[in-house]
Amino acid sequence: MTKIELYNVLLDNGWTIKKGIDDCAYKQLPDRQIQVIPGIKKLPDEYQIIMMPSVSTKDFSVLVKYIFENKKPRKIVHSGIVKNNQQSIYTKNPTREVVENYLQEIEVWAQEQDIEAELKEYCKLPTDSKGNLPLHHLSALAISGQSTQLTDYLEHFQNSDSMGFVPYIKQDFIERALEASKKYQ
Amino acid sequence: MRKKGHILITPVVVSQAQEGGNVTNTGKFDDSGNEIYQRDSGGYYYIDDKGVQRTVTSPYENNSNIGAQKLHHDAKVTEYKSELEARGYTVSDKEASFGYDCGREGRCRPDIIGRGPDGKILLFEVKTGNADLSICQSEICPQIRNSDAIPRGQVAEDFGLIPGIPLKEQDYPNGIPIEVVQFEGLKND
Q1: Buried b or exposed e, range B132-168, using 16+ CB within 10 angstroms
Q2: Which of A4, A78, B72, B112 could serve as A35's disulfide partner, Cβ 3.0–4.6 Å?
Q3: Is ipTM over 0.90?
Q4: A96-112 and A3-12 helices, crossing angle to 10°
Q5: Statement: the pTM of the whole predicted model exceeds 0.90
Q6: What is the per-residue pLDDT across A29-48, written as a single tens digit (0 to 9) for each?
Q7: A10: nearest CA in chain B?
Q8: A37 to chain B: which residues are within 8 Å by CB?
Q9: B 143-172 residues with CB below 8 A of A?
């Protein structure tokens, strides 16, 4: 099976593919969105079918992008809330059926995840988290309608206290998160 | 029958008037799944996401042992990932991309991105035989180590980094360490 054939299996099963630095595929379920980063690799004795699944919601993903870039994205965006530890399967015979069964397992896994509980964990993150965690923290606070905490953050920033947030988090990020939080109260 | 949205994989001859010659779709793919075309002149290439032709080696296996070398390298990467997981690391099944701090075209993808038991991110470059760092690797790896490099793509994001923002602004003021892991090459490498 080639990468193109793998992509065609995804398309046939209702996934949307977005080409980019890392090609991704998305499936929208009624209350959540799944992302996979598909690939197929030939190993000496078998094939590795890679998916790296993660689940999120469209609202959360759009909000992350909005807080980060100050614009509503036109294309599909995805900021994973829960990631599946099983990133790949290994098979000697990478058929369409094998891939379809794997995709089905991913959908079942995605449906089982407690997104609300994970968002609560993001809300609890310390302000000095690394990488994309502070952005997810602000987005989780916003989508949970926690304006009081965001107002407190904003007051600190206005007093030149960035509270240990990483340098890319600026005051306008907090302002956009606060603005968004009022819609979710 | 080709379904709507499907990607055509049947070999075809494509006129390439702008270059004054013909190209043939070989019907073969490189390891990343890119279709490989052959020029009248005999050279091979694929077309990247930006429509740029990228030269590749012949896709016909009996012309070289490059396919075997790649297979050997990938096997060693998989082997080393298993070893890291046994040591308590979380590793990504795909490579994360990093670009230049100046926004210049070009990226490098260290073979393995992992998070150690202490929560710190580490990168590993697996080398087999006499393979050396590529030009991009030799230029971007120092920037990853000194925190100037910029993560790119969804794999990096999935691993907790922000694409498009230099590492130093994501609280990696000392960059991310890259460990080069050396394995023996194939006998004819």
Answers
A1: eeeebbeebbebbbebbbbbbbbbbbbbbbbbbbbbb
A2: A78
A3: yes
A4: 50
A5: no
A6: 999 999 999 999 988 889 99
A7: B6
A8: 94, 154-155, 158
A9: 152-155, 157-158, 160-163, 165, 168-172
